[in-house]
Each structure stands twice: as C-alpha cells, then as structure tokens.
Amino acid sequence: MHNRYIWLLREPRTGSSWLASHLQDKLNLKMIFIDEMPEFNKFPADVPHPNHFPDDVRLIGTHYFVHLMNLSNFDNPLVIRTTRRSKSDRCISMLYSKIYGTWHWRPDVLSEKTLQRTLENPMYVTKQKVKVIMENFKSQEDEWFRFCDQYETNTVVYEDLFDGVYIPGLNTTVKFSDDSSKHIKFPDRTRAFINYEEIVKWCSEYEDSMGFKKYE
C-alpha cells in the first residue's frame, strides 16, 4: 500500500498540518510539502511528476488544488482532502492567522502569554476581508469537485477528527486525541474579534450565496 502515492489536498485551517504529521508517524511515511519547492512555487508552476521526488517519498501535501488536474502522472494515486464543516470557524481561524502570523496551534508555537495578549486586544474585521477569504475557500472547493472524480478520494472533515475519521484508502482511523500534543483548539474566539457575531453572520450569508457544499 505504501508504494502508492498519497496526495494530501490541504484546505488551510482544517487540521491539515496535524493530519500530515500524524500520517507520517502512524504509517511511517515520508512527506514533502510541495508548496515549499521552488519548481512549484512559481508561475507557471511545473507539472508534478514522480521524477520530482525522492524514491522514498509517498505522501505529498499541498494547499494548491490546481494540482488536481495533473495527478494523472501518478499511477492510481489516493487523494485525501481536508475540509471544515463550519466555514465561519475556518474563516475566523484564517483571519486570526493572517493578522497575527500564527499558523500552528501547538503549545511549542503559541504560548499562553502570546495568546492572552491577542485576546486582550480584539480586532475589527471588515466585510470585504471576510468576502475575499470566503471566495478563496469556494475556489478550492470548486477545484476539488471539478477533478476529484478522476481519482480515488477520501475527505477528512475537521470537526469529525474529535471523534475519529476512518480513511478507507489507508484502512486507518485518525483522531485528534491520538496525537493531542500537536493540536490545541482556540480557547475563546469571541474575545479575539470586536465584531465576532457580525463575522459569523457574514460567513453564513456568503456560504449560502456562494453555494458551498453542506456536510452533515
């Protein structure tokens, strides 16, 4: 099974860093995050091919769903997508990360002192900023549904990781509590934004008007 290429299509702020790290440890896989490779971090980017990667790499991660159209270069890849049911939670997480530059919710990265300082200085966010982020979310979703039928795919929903998600293509279950040192949840989002309720309302409006897929 591990001779097969596994692509991890990572929607930002969906627990994808945790999942990538967890799969590496649990399945003894070596991963490359191609967004940090020069040949894929340019325009136009190179088309991914197995020749780009060392022979022992089988887990390939990216935030750029445009790569979905070119995965035919890989023999029968398994494609795993991470997403989040609550678009407002994801948007708020993205806003916080963009403003403060804090991308990984781990005790070794985000200290209690730093977190407390940000919570004591809540931010106001404009509707236009929310719209831009939601448009980016929808663009990724559209790319996924445009090309996902070409491959064997599994989707991991962030909220379900608290109880556990079975990934059929890997025949394994992943759960936050199995590797809790690498994931902490934001303690009180309402205190981080002056207009928190307004942001949630805008996200809900854009989720409906843009036609996001609903996950039960």
Structure, described:
With 216 residues, this protein is an alpha/beta fold. The protein has a single domain (6-210), classed as Rossmann fold (3-Layer(aba) Sandwich). The protein contains five helices and seven strands, in the order E-H-E-E-E-H-H-H-E-E-E-H. It has helices at 16-27, 87-100, 112-119, 127-147, 196-210, and strands spanning 6-10, 30-33, 57-62, 78-83, 152-157, 165-167, 172-174. The strands form two sheets. A five-stranded parallel sheet has the order 2-3-1-4-5, covered by helices on one side. Strands 6-7 form a two-stranded antiparallel ribbon. Helix 2 (87-100) packs across helix 4 (127-147), helix 2 crosses helix 5 (196-210) and helix 4 (127-147) runs parallel beside helix 5 (196-210). The two termini are 30 Å apart.
Q: What's this entry about, in short?
A:
This protein is of the alpha/beta class. It contains five helices and seven strands, in the order E-H-E-E-E-H-H-H-E-E-E-H.
Rg measurement, Å: 18 Å
List the domain count as a whole number. Answer: 1
Beta-strand portion reads 15-25%
Secondary structure tally: strands: 7
Mean pLDDT: 88
* Helix percentage range: 25-40%
**Architecture in CATH?**
3-Layer(aba) Sandwich
Global structural class: alpha/beta
Low-confidence stretches: none
